[in-house]
Fold each of these.
Amino acid sequence: IPTFRRIMRNGSTEMFSGLPYIYSLLNCLICLWYGTPLISADNLLITTVNSIGAVFQFVYIILFLMYAEKAKKVRMFGLLLAVLGVFAIILFGSLQINDALTRRFFVGFLSCASLISMFASPLFIIKLVIQTKSVEFMPFYLSLSTFLMSTSFLLYGIFNNDAFIYVPNGIGTILGLIQLILYFYFESKSRENSREPLIVSYA
C-alpha cells in the first residue's frame, strides 16, 4: 500500500518492478487451484488465502498498468495475458487427468515451481539494491510480509506433511531473510552517510 501511494502521488511507477505482482498472481491462481477438493483434500485454507491474494494482485497490477510508462505498460499487459493463459491451460490440462494422485502431483509440482518463481522475483530488486546501494525501490513491508508469509506456510506444510508447500516456502523464507538483511544493511549505511559532516573548501 505505501508503494502504490507513492506511485499514485508521483504519477509514475519510477524504477519499481511489476514482476513481483505478476509472479504473485500466477502463484496465487495455481495454489488456489491446488487447494481445491478437486486436487487435494483438506487444503481449503490454501484456496481461501490465495483467492484473497489473487484479488490483491489483480488490483496492484491494474494500478501499475495505469501509472507505468508506455513500454513498461505493454510488457506488463503482455505478461498478465500470459499468466491468465498459462493458468487456463493448467486448469484444463489437470482436469483431463483421471487419476486423483497423478492430478495432485501434476498441480503440486506446478504450484511448487510458481512459488519458487514468486520468491525469486525480488532477486531483480536485490540486484538493483546492490548496484545502487539504496533500498529506495525495495519496499520494506513487501520484504517483511514475504518473509512472514513464507515462514507461516513453511510451518503449515511441515505440520501437514505436504512437501509441495513446505519445500518452496522454505526457499521463500531464506530469500525473504536475505532481503531483510540487505534492507537493514543498506538502510543503516545510508543513515551513516547522511550523518557525515559536510566538508566545505574555501580555497
Amino acid sequence: TVLSEKPTTFTITVTSEAGENDETVQTTLKFTYREKYPDETPLYEIVSQENLDDSDVMDIIKLLEQQAEENLGMVMIFTLVSAVQEKLNEIVDQIKTRREEEKKQKEREAEEEEKQRFHGTPVTIENFLNWKAKFDAELLEIKRKKMKEEEQAGKNKLSGKQLFEMDHNLDTSDIQFLEE
C-alpha cells in the first residue's frame, strides 16, 4: 500500500506459509525511500505483526539491517521482503519443532509417571510374610462376619460338601442303605 509520494512511503504485508493447523505468522513492513536510494538504505520499520514474539521481531529488524547493508547500491526492497519471508517461514518451523518437543516431553513425563505408579515396594521375605499375615487376618475376619450374618439370618444350614467334610460316615451311608 502506497502511503505517500514525497518521500515515497509504502507498506508490504509479509505472511509465512501455513504451518501445522494452518498457523501463520505475519508482519507489515513500512519502507520509506531516502533521497539517495539505492546508494543509501531505505528507512524501514515493522508496523504490525501477528503471532510473533518480541525476540522474533528483533531478529527480523537485525535481518533487515544486514540485508540492507549487503545490498547498498542495488534496488533492494524485493530482497528485503524475500529475506523476511524466509525468516517468517523459519519461525513457523521453529514453532512446529517447539510444539513437537513439548509434546514429546509431556509423553516422557507421562511415561515416567506411569512407571512410578507401577513401581511399588520391593518384595522381600519379611515384607511378604508381614503382608501374608495381614491378608490371612483380613480373610479370617471376613469369614467370621459372614458366619455371624448367616447365623443371625437363620441360614445355618450346611452345604452337601460341608456335611461330607464334617461327617465321614456319610461317605458310605448310601451303600449301607442299598444293602439293607
Amino acid sequence: VLENHDLQDSIKPQKVEFHSLNFNTTLHWQPGWAREARDALYFVQYKVYGQSTWQNKDECWGISSRVCDLTHETSDIQEPYYSRVRAALAGVYSSWSLSCRFTPWRETMIGPPMVTVVHSNKSITVKLQAPRSPYRRKRGSKIPMTNYYDLLFQVFIINNLLDEQHRVLVYEGKEKVIKIQDLRPGISYCIVAKMYMPMLDHSSAYSSRQCTML
C-alpha cells in the first residue's frame, strides 16, 4: 500500500495552467517528478467557479499528451473557470492537481494584427486586420477580437538606415487603412503593428515586419 501511495504522489501532475491567445484556450501541465511518470495517462475535468460538479473533458480522458484544448468549454468569456488533472499509471491514480482560477475575458492574450503594406513613391499605405477569436458568427465567419474589447491599432515605422530597433509610433487608433506620407525615396522602411487595449493596459506582441523600398 505504501508503494502505491508513493506512486500516487510521484505521478501527480505539476503546474496545471491555462494558456489563452485570442480566446483559444488550452490547459497545460507537467508530469510528476518520478521518472516513470512520463508514461502516465491523464484525465481532465473543468467547471465554472461556484458550480459543485466537475465535468469530464471527454477528448482529454486517458490521454498521454500534456495539453488539453478547452476553447469550447470556456466560451462564456466573462465566467471564471477551474480545471484539474489527475494521472494514472499501472492502475494507480494520483490525486487531482488544480489550476488557478481563469477568466477568459481578463486573462486571454491578444495577438498582433495582420499587416499588409502597399507603397507608392513617397508614401506607404498600411492595411490592418485585427486578430480573430475562435467563435463564429451565425454566417460562419470568425468574430474579430475588436468585438470583445475596445482595441486600438498601434503602427510603428522602422527606418532601416537608422537602427533596426528604433521603432517610431506613427499611428494609434481604430482605422484599418492608414497612409504614411512624406517618406524618402530609395530608403527601405519596415512596418510593425500591435494591438493595444487601453482599459486593461495590455499590448499584444508585435506583428511580423513588413518591409518595402520606396
Amino acid sequence: VGDSSVLTCPHKANIIMLTWKINPKAGGPCILGYRADTNMTDRTNCSDSMNWIFSPDLAPALEIQQVGIAQEGNYTCEVVSTEGNFHTTYHLTVLAPPRLSLSCDEHGSPVCEAAAGRPPAHVSWAPESNSTPEEKGHDDGTVTVLSRFTACSTSVTNVATCVVFHPAGNWSQSTAC
C-alpha cells in the first residue's frame, strides 16, 4: 500500500498495438490502449494513477502510483507486433504492513496489537505465551490482531517481547509491565 508498482509487457520489435486489460477486485474494468501507427494512447475507466512507461530500450510497462487495496486484481498486457500476438497476465496482491503497538493492560499484562494489516499478521511472544490472538476485520480489507501475554509458567521474567510476522516484514517490541 502506498508504493508504486511497475508491470512490464513482453519486449517485442515492431509493436503495432498494445493493450492493458485491468480487472480490479473493487470497481469496474479499465482498458489502456496504444496504437503505434497513430502514436496515440487511450484510456477507458482508468484512474490517473495508472500510466504508461515507454522507453526505446525497455519493455513497455504500466506504472501504478500509490497502490491501494482497490487496485488489487488481474492485469493483462496484450502486445500485437509483426512477430505475433503475446499476452502476459499479473495478479496484483496488495500488502498493508500492520502498525505495531505494545502496552500494558489494567491487570499489568502486556498487550500486543498489530493494527490494520493485510493479510492478518501472526503474533507470537518470547517467552512463550498461552494467549489466543483476537482478529477484527475492517471495511477496507485490513485486519487488526490483538494478543494478550499469558505466561506458560510462573518462573518467567517480567519482560515480554511481542514478535509480529507479516509478508511485508517482521517486527518486535519488548516491555516490562
